[in-house]
TrEMBL record:
Annotated GO MF terms: hydrolase activity
Record's signal peptide: 1-22
A Pfam family reported for this protein in Swiss-Prot or TrEMBL: Trypsin
EC supergroup of this enzyme: hydrolase
Gene3D superfamilies in alphabetical order: Trypsin-like serine proteases (2.40.10.10)
InterPro entries: Peptidase_S1, Peptidase_S1_PA, Peptidase_S1_PA_chymotrypsin, Peptidase_S1A, Trypsin_dom, TRYPSIN_HIS
Domain Peptidase S1: 29-243
Protein name (database record): Trypsin-like serine protease
Length: 243
């Protein structure tokens, strides 16, 4: 049975209680295609090992999924985390490290903002309007490219998958997205994000330079459906942190 890489606890709860539940496995693009564009895409590493994807949303802020920053319910220390920015190749670009103690987690969604030294990359503009049923979106990430051991097939190059937003009450997404949650649900069009793509940008489909960040990928069944935290619902929190 396909597994769903999904955060089960809100960031605020984890931070306040120091919970002991294990974080879900980080979710990469199975199928899809290599991307030729993605200046705002960020590759995340823990102890030098690729784990998640993120987005540069301001010169000093990277946005990713909260569950990427926890292991066995414990926060991953800042000194263990690094990011590569400015390249479609996960082994190239500029290496940056978090500013100590400067993480900000959403109390409502699987999202984490991490402050870093100023980056010289194009940042992703935040969508001000929510997604709608039938909308085509594009998910980017360096995650798993196979259906087996996701750790054995992490992509070196940035990949993209095209998906379509489905109704909030679609039964395929029950318990993971839809009414009463901070996520929206998507169905596969071409490719599906999986392990290593968690935290990656979900962008509107538009000419290069005109796309907007509409979501933060946080889980999939690795077969046909995926979920993402909706940027428009978290815009007030995001702006309150990054300005």
């Amino acid at each position: 049975m396909a597994h769903r890489a999904r955060a089960l606890l809100l960031t605020a709860l984890a931070l306040l209680t120091g919970g002991t539940l294990a974080a879900p496995p980080a979710s990469a693009v199975i199928g899809g295609a290599p991307s030729t564009y993605g200046p705002w895409a960020v590759r995340m590493f823990v102890d030098g090992v690729p784990t998640c994807t993120g987005t540069a949303v301001a010169r000093e802020w990277v946005l990713s999924a909260s569950h990427c920053f926890f292991e066995q319910g414990q926060a991953v220390a800042d000194k263990r985390i690094s990011f590569r920015v400015g390249s479609l190749d996960a082994t190239a670009g500029t290496l940056v490290h978090p500013v100590k103690g400067a993480r900000r987690g959403s109390a409502e969604a699987d999202m984490m903002l991490v402050k870093v030294p100023p980056m010289t990359v194009r940042t992703a503009p935040l969508a001000s309007e929510g997604v709608h049923t039938g909308q085509r979106v594009r998910v980017y990430g360096w995650g798993a490219t196979c259906e087996g051991d996701e750790n054995a097939c992490q992509s070196r190059v940035l990949k993209e998958a095209d998906l379509r937003v489905v109704r909030p009450d679609d039964p395929r997404c029950a318990g993971h997205a839809g009414p009463g949650t901070s996520d929206f649900c998507m169905e596969k069009v071409k490719g599906i994000p999986a392990g290593g793509d968690s935290g990656g940008p979900v962008m509107s489909v538009a000419p290069h330079g005109r796309e907007k960040l509409v979501g933060v990928f946080d889980g999939s069944d690795r077969e046909s459906t995926a979920e993402a935290g909706e940027i428009a619902r978290q815009r007030k929190w995001l702006r309150g942190v990054i300005g």
